[in-house]
Amino acid sequence: MGNILAIDSSVSGDSSISRGLVQDTVVRLLEANPKAALTYRDLAAAPVPHLTPATVAGIRGTAETDAEIAARMLSDELIAELQSADVIVIGAPMYNFSIPTSLRAWFDHVLRPRVTFRYGENGAEGLLSGKRAIVVETRGGVYSEGPTRGMDFQEPYLKTLLAFIGITDVAFIHAEKIGYGPEAQQLSLAKAREQIDAAVNPRAAAEYASDNAQADPAIAWNALMQKNLDDVFGERDAARRLDVIRQIYCDDAVLHEPDHSVRGHDAISQAVTELLAHLPADFAFSAIRPASSHNGIGRVQWTAGPPEGPAEVTGIDIASFDGGRIRSLHVFLDQADA
Ligand SMILES: Cc1cc2nc3c(=O)[nH]c(=O)nc-3n(C[C@H](O)[C@H](O)[C@H](O)COP(=O)(O)O)c2cc1C
Description:
This protein is of the alpha/beta class. The protein is built from ten helices and 14 strands. β13 and β14 form a beta hairpin.
């Protein structure tokens, strides 16, 4: 991982949540690879112009006038930054259910036929390859679950834009409920930072946890427990869930639920499928506070219920770890107060 391209698009300056999380991500990337070169674009401070007849002619046609040539040069410059980046970090606040227009203007300049994509016999083909993206999505409300999921024109759109030019390895970091008050915001930020840790280098985090028990493996274990809650128990797509289970659970890991235990990746995924089948579709799990761990054991307290409603079930996950992955997970259930 040599080059990082970081892009901010929030108009909120120092009070911006996404700017802080983009910075956290860049710091973590640089810690993992101190020799990485960083290119930074602030689309609020130095906006990319919105499309006009001249900019479209310059970017997609034969640039002739001064305005067209200027647009072509800017597009060349932005694409060169993208082409030379190994990791692209994008700060993308949700504005009116989608992305800031400044970020859209950046995409307008880098989605260029025959340079970053082309149409062939099989349809569109992205021309960038071997790149990862980490996209920080901040939102006043909640869109990752529940009835407002269908109003999310931010993540599917960003996923499509990036995939269209060949960037399919994308980690989305969610900082939701930013408008729900300080407590919800703090919890959301803690979760986002754990997602960043896992996104920056999940394998290294796992190896770090096993190889360097003297230091602070708890950091990596906490990320594993949070990921288990979000991407295993919070994932209804069985194929996606199994991918995560293979990544974060030992091959012969055991899941102990109150009434039965199962061993191995497929059986764990099946047990979660069965659990979720008994719950309403909008039922969501969320950590009450960040996971904590020490000396090989971790715990996370969680609640589950409808996204806007009261908790219907609360519980605690207790995990043991081996080789940076989960060796066993005990799920303890409480009944929530009426
Ligand atoms: C112009 C504008 C439009 C917004 N639209 C939405 C929206 O549609 N849905 C939402 O959940 N939050 C919305 N928000 C709230 C932001 O997503 C939230 O404040 C987030 O923290 C912004 O990111 P930032 O802190 O990095 O600027 C909007 C905020 C602004 C300024």
